[in-house]
Structure formats: C-alpha cells, structure tokens
Design a protein that fits this description.
By secondary structure, this protein is mostly beta strands. The protein contains one helix and nine strands; from the N terminus they run αβββββββββ. 14% of the residues are buried.
C-alpha cells in the first residue's frame, strides 16, 4: 500500500512570514538582544591628538539582530573642510588632522531592540 503524502501549497501569507522572519538580518538560532558595546576599554572620554596625526575612533558592538552604527560630530553628520572621513563597520578614521577636526564625536548603535551611544571628546592641538 503506498505511503500517504502531504502536499503544502505556498501562499502569499507563507511568503510574508518567511520574509518577516528574515527582516533585520538576525541569527534565528540565537535569542534577540539589544546592542551592547563589545570592547568597553576602547570607549575613552577624551582624546588629544596633535595636528597632522591620524585619529581612529571605534565603537564595536554586538546584538541580535546585528546593530548598525551612525556617527555624529557635534550632533551633526561629520564633515571635514580638508580630507575624507573613512567609516568602516565600527570605525571612524581621519588622517592629517587639523584643529577644526576637534569636537564631540558620538557613535549611535541601534537595532530593533534599542540604541546605545558613546561620545568621544576630541581635541586637536
């Protein structure tokens, strides 16, 4: 006697569930968690650098779904009069610093469960 078979027809509702479960790029096998700074020792308050040097600010964080990061300088999008600002994953980097590069740099790390932030006071001398 043949074995009974079941048939599942994929509906639009099934597709919505699949797409929503993948939203936010999170690891479904791990419990969801809000952002958390993973290297607190890198989160110093005051950084003093001589003009002409390089500055690297890092705010590495974990969370599930994976958090994103936004950088601000004095509460605005960071901009420089001279030279680029390199932003990669958790790092903001600037070379050939000038006095005008000084200010309060804030990293804001967020996922769907919340946000954390840290502000670096940067003085260029």
């Amino acid at each position: 006697m043949p074995q009974p078979r079941s048939l599942h027809l994929e509906t639009d509702l099934d597709n919505d569930k699949t797409e929503n479960s993948n939203a936010g790029d999170h690891n479904a096998t791990q419990p969801q968690s809000p952002p958390n700074f993973s290297k607190v020792d890198e989160l110093v308050g005051l950084i003093v650098k001589p003009a002409g040097n390089m500055l690297k600010l890092r705010c590495p964080a974990t969370g599930n779904p994976a958090p994103n990061i936004t950088w601000l300088k004095n509460d605005l999008e960071p901009q420089r009069a001279i030279g680029p600002i390199h932003m990669t994953k958790w790092t903001l980097r600037m070379e050939d610093l000038v006095v005008e590069d000084g200010g309060n740099y804030t990293c804001i790390v967020c996922n769907i469960l919340g946000c954390i932030n840290h502000t670096f006071k940067v003085d260029i001398i």
